[in-house]
């Protein structure tokens, strides 16, 4: 597997390092010795068809599924056995597939829950206003129950809630799934903006073209294995990737 190239100013230690990760559902081997790295400040995409093992890999990283084999290192430490609560406190947050918002809470209450791990309560209100600036629709509906929002609005809220925790590493699982083209544009615009501000992002996405267009590096996953990796722009031009994932 190709290792990423780094400039002299880039930290040599990966923020996230997955080594020979193996995962199974019952007798079905879903992930078969996967390895990947995400370095500070990078936007890395993990692309692949449905059922390739992408979401399963994220579940293991965030403590939602025990690994059969391999290691997951975050900031150089093995995070096996840590729950999502511990990981959020350490700066690792995920926006899950399906969004996972609190449907019976208002938009404002959801955002406040995102900041629950923070100690700087005086700054929470200003950060909520920053989220509202990013997603004006949420501000208009701040007192509305989250469960009554459209799919796109729920995705905005899920991302806003994760950002309220001030993560060092943001994991996004299929953020564009089921959204209108206009909403997809907005979501990818926000992902680019967040990454441009220095946040490290690992993006799992079936929309391979859009994911590769905004990423620094990318991994291609097939049947539980990483089959290609490298600079996102190079993979965007790779004939195999174009044929398999870009409809060419």
General description of the model:
Helices cover 36% and strands 25% of the residues. It has a domain of 168 residues: P-loop containing nucleotide triphosphate hydrolases (Rossmann fold, 3-Layer(aba) Sandwich), CATH 3.40.50.300. The chain has 248 residues and is of the alpha/beta class. α3 runs parallel beside α6. The protein contains 10 helices and 10 strands.
Describe the structure in brief.
By secondary structure, the protein is an alpha/beta fold.
Structure characteristics:
disordered N terminus; Rossmann fold; single chain; about 35% helix; 4-stranded antiparallel beta sheet; 6-stranded mixed beta sheet; 10 helices; 10 strands; about 250 residues; about 25% strand; alpha/beta
- Uncertain residue ranges: 1-11
Secondary-structure element order, N to C: EEEHEEHEHHHHEHEHEEHH
Gyration radius from CA atoms, angstroms: 18 Å
CATH class identity of the domain at 16-100 and 163-245: Alpha Beta
Q: What's the structural blueprint in terms of helices and strands?
A:
Blueprint: E1 16-25, E2 28-38, E3 43-47, H1 54-61, E4 69-74, E5 77-78, H2 84-89, E6 92-95, H3 107-114, H4 121-134, H5 136-140, H6 151-164, E7 169-173, H7 181-196, E8 200-205, H8 208-214, E9 217-222, E10 225-231, H9 232-236, H10 239-245
Parallel strand pairs: 3-8, 3-9, 6-7, 7-8
Antiparallel strand pairs: 1-2, 1-4, 4-5, 9-10
């Amino acid at each position: 597997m190709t290792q990423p190239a780094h400039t002299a100013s880039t930290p040599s230690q990966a923020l996230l390092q997955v080594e020979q990760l193996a995962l199974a559902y019952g007798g079905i081997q879903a992930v078969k010795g996967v390895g990947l790295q995400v370095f500070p400040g990078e936007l890395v995409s993990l692309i692949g068809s449905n059922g390739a093992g992408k979401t399963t890999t994220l579940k293991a990283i965030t403590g939602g599924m025990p690994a059969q084999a391999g290691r997951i290192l975050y900031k150089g430490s093995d995070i096996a056995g840590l729950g999502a609560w511990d990981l959020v406190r350490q700066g690792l947050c995920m926006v899950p597939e399906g969004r996972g918002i609190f449907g019976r809470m208002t938009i404002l209450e959801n955002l406040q829950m995102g900041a629950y791990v923070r100690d700087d309560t005086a700054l929470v209100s200003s950060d909520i206003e920053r989220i509202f600036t990013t997603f004006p629709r949420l501000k208009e509906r701040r007192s509305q129950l989250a469960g009554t929002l459209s799919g796109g609005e729920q995705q905005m809220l899920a991302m806003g809630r994760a950002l309220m925790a001030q993560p060092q590493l943001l994991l996004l699982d299929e953020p564009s799934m089921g959204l209108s083209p206009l909403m997809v544009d907005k979501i990818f615009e926000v992902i680019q903006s967040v990454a441009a501000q220095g946040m490290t992002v690992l993006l799992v996405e079936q929309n391979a073209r859009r994911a590769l267009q905004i990423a620094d590096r990318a991994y291609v996953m097939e049947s539980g294995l990483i089959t290609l990796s490298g600079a996102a722009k190079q993979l965007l031009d790779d004939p195999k990737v174009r044929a398999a994932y870009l409809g060419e």
